[in-house]
Amino acid sequence: MLRTRLWVGTLLVVLAGGALVVDQWFAPFYPLLLALVLGLSLAAGAELVQLLSAVRRPLPWLCYGGLILLAAANWLAHVPPTEGFCPDPWPWVAGAFAAFVLAAFLVEMATFQEPGTSLTRIALAVWLVAYLGLLPSFLAQIRWLGEPPGLSRRCNTEGLMGLVLAIFVPKCCDIGAYCTGRLLGRHLMTPVLSPKKTWEGAAGGLVMAAAVAVALDRLGPAKLLYHHLGVEIGFGVTLGVAGMLGDLAESLIKRDCQRKDASQVVPGFGGVLDVVDAVLFAGPVAYLWFRITL
What we know:
The chain has a two-stranded antiparallel ribbon. The chain has 9 helices and 2 strands, in the order H-H-H-H-H-H-E-E-H-H-H. By secondary structure, the chain is mainly α. It starts with a helix and ends with a helix.
């Protein structure tokens, strides 16, 4: 299990890192990032839809459409290739999310047959799109932080390093917690929600997150955290905590749906949702950090 987790994790790191680097050549549109965000959102969405019981499951096509709409909204503000055009992307994202909420109501109104489940399906559809469409929006928007407006966007190392930090710090925290917990774990952290997690593992994960944040900031081409040790450690610890909460949130979903894993498509990890859960919660925290520091 550990060996499989290590080689699959290494492969995922190489693929994600390679996509981010190659995408530099396609600035400011970043099509590989769009494909990555959209593909992972749809795959995780399919897993989440299947986790829900049939009686309360929202229409799959409605959820997938909402995820596509949210992903597209993140890119629309950055697509017009006009010098000086760089509007605030959040009205696009908020408008797309509001449109989906309205659509969820309209679909249930059009297909209503009997009372009892319509409100549950609406609520779950909105929750699913918020979880897998709205939260990743913060991660996607990091890519454009620090970019000059217009066409001259070929060397935005700030956005690239921001994504690297936002993705790899929480995932390395997960690896550190897993390894430390297996070696030293004695005291259970959440025995009901996630019985294998320990306080020793959590401490090891946070140390790993802080160390990775320091290393990436010092070795990377952009000084996002100013090479300031206190800022780097604070960033690593807060993203590590956010990633752990994201992992526990996904554990809550699986426990409530009485499933061990979201699926088995990723050897050693489970499903796509098991891979991205930490990053979903870490993305908004990282975005806030970079909005302050950049």
